[in-house]
Write a structure and sequence with these properties.
Largest sheet: 6 strands, mixed
Radius of gyration: 17 Å
Number of strands: 14
Strand content: 25-35%
Shape: globular
Length: 254
């Protein structure tokens, strides 16, 4: 099962940059998108249906903002949206879909780059998300979480880490959250296969950052320990360009 996660920074914009042809060629079993910036009627569901995908869309109440979507070749046994917490769920940030014993979570964790209130909102979201996942794992121990975490976990995951110690996405408290989250028995799939530096999934549109590879690794597939025996591969598709992010891939034997 090939699972691709991709922050498309607006699905309609991505469609105008060849995204549809790329999806057809990549042919994932499950495609999880973040920052769709679209309401359900603004997403070409007929296109995805034509490729054999079942569609789940969780849009933000605010139009043109946030939003996640999950497309799967199999119809999920069960699905849900959000964490049953209206203050977060109104922003369309989580989809859960169960496929046999495996639960897939598509998540778009808030950015705190505007500082102040939104950084506090981000930290509150992270706390709520930990509780949500910990509770879910009691009944669904085999879990894969993919999406834009908006956090670089370790110095290796960001260019020139010494320059970003006060930047949202690399703050000590965010990285401490990630440490604790991994410590609950979760695995960063990419680092199981590639320990090398300068591997990123997001680049600012400013100052030619992508051409210079001045990036951040903020997009992840994280699995519970129970899924580790079924993990076959994980990689970053940095050459794919429809967004300021690129797709990340995990393959699991389900």
């Amino acid at each position: 099962m090939k699972i691709i996660s991709y922050n498309v920074n607006g699905i309609r914009s991505a469609m105008g940059k060849g995204f549809a042809g790329w999806v057809e060629e990549a042919n994932p079993d499950i495609l999880c998108l973040q920052e769709t910036k679209a309401q359900p009627e603004q997403i070409d569901q007929l296109f995805f249906a034509g490729l054999g995908y079942h569609t789940l869309i969780n849009s933000a109440q605010k139009k043109g903002y946030s939003g996640v979507a999950l497309f799967s070749k199999r119809i999920p046994d069960y699905h849900s949206f959000g964490m049953n917490l209206p203050m977060f769920d109104c922003e369309g940030r989580i989809i859960r879909a169960d496929f046999g014993p495996l639960t897939v979570i598509c998540v778009y964790i808030p950015s705190g780059t505007t500082g102040g209130v939104r950084q506090l909102f981000k930290m509150e979201f992270l706390s709520a998300f930990t509780a949500y996942i910990n509770n879910l794992r009691k009944e669904r121990p085999e879990i894969l979480i993919c999406g834009d975490f908006n956090i670089c976990h370790k110095p290796i995951d960001i260019n020139h880490p010494e320059r970003h110690t006060n930047s949202s996405g690399f703050l000590p408290e965010e990285r401490e959250w990630f440490d604790q989250f991994i410590g609950t028995g979760m695995i960063d799939t990419f680092r199981e296969f590639d320990p090398s530096p300068e591997k990123y999934s997001w680049w600012s549109f400013m100052a030619g950052s992508r051409a210079k590879n001045l990036g951040w690794r903020i997009d992840y597939h994280v699995i519970s320990e129970q899924v580790r025996p079924k993990l076959e591969n994980a990689c970053i598709l940095s050459e794919v360009v429809h967004s300021d992010h690129c797709p990340v891939v995990a393959e699991v034997n389900y």
